[in-house]
Amino acid sequence: MKTSFPKPAQTPKWYVVDAENQILGRLSTKVANVLRGRHRASYVPHYPAKDHVIILNASKIKVTGDKIEQKIYYRHTGYLGHLRQTTLKRMNEKDPTKALTLAIKGMLPKNATRDHTLKQLHIYAGAEHEHDANKPVPLPLS
Predict the structure, then answer these.
(1) How far apart are CA 91 and CA 104, in angstroms?
(2) What stretch of H or E contains 103?
(3) Which DSSP category does 58 fall into?
(4) Which of 30, 53, 88, 111 fits as disulfide partner to 71, beta carbons 3.0 to 4.6 Å?
(5) What pTM was estimated for this model as a whole?
(6) CA distance readout (Å), 112 to 47, 56, 65, 94, 109
(7) In what order do the strands lie in the sheet with 137-138?
(8) Which is nearest to 104 in space by CA: 1, 16, 52, 33?
(9) What is the pLDDT of residues 65-113, one digit of tens each?
(10) Which class for 1: exposed (0-12), middle (13-18), buried (19 or more C-beta within 10 A)?
(11) Distance in angstroms (rounded) separating the CA atoms of residues 55 and 78
């Protein structure tokens, strides 16, 4: 008896998502699944998918409850006692794509494929992007 092993998809697809009025966590899970290739029949867990996702209007993303004021992001500079913290509201004012990138990064597996997968994520604060030559198709969010 032989076990069949599905071959990973060879042709990359480009998807475009409008993040206006979308909830941060729900959008992040759908994008993370597409970046991993879980939407394809030829999904292989240890093989990085080749699909790209373009997210537009990241500055108009929504969160539920009071997370805009209460959610705190932490980072450490590497020096003793230098733990920095910032709220989601302040992070969105400084760089509106950062919170969405961190949310998607946290939903990807913590291994060598994560850095490769994040290079296939393209996030823009506005409605314009430079990937028209790749003919992106809308990503169904249902």
Answers:
(1) 16
(2) helix 98-107
(3) G
(4) 88
(5) 0.90
(6) 10, 27, 34, 29, 9
(7) 121-123, 52-56, 14-18, 137-138
(8) 33
(9) 999 999 999 999 999 999 999 999 999 999 999 999 999 999 999 988 8
(10) exposed
(11) 31
- Domain 14-63+90-138, CATH class in plain words: alpha beta
**28 closest CA partner among 53, 60, 59:** 53
Q: Please identify which residue in the block is written with the tokens 């969105």.
A: 92
Q: Give the model's confidence band at 142: pLDDT under 50 very low, under 70 low, under 90 confident, else very high.
A: low
Tell me how long the chain is. 142
Rounded to whole angstroms, the Cα distance separating 37 from 54 reads: 15
Tokens of 15: 């998807």
E runs forming strands in the chain: 14-18, 52-56, 72-76, 83-87, 121-123, 137-138
Residue with tokens 């932490």: 74
**Taking the CA of residue 87 as centre, how many other CA atoms within 13 Å lie in the half-sphere pointing to its CB?**
9
The DSSP 8-state label assigned to residue 7 in this structure reads: P
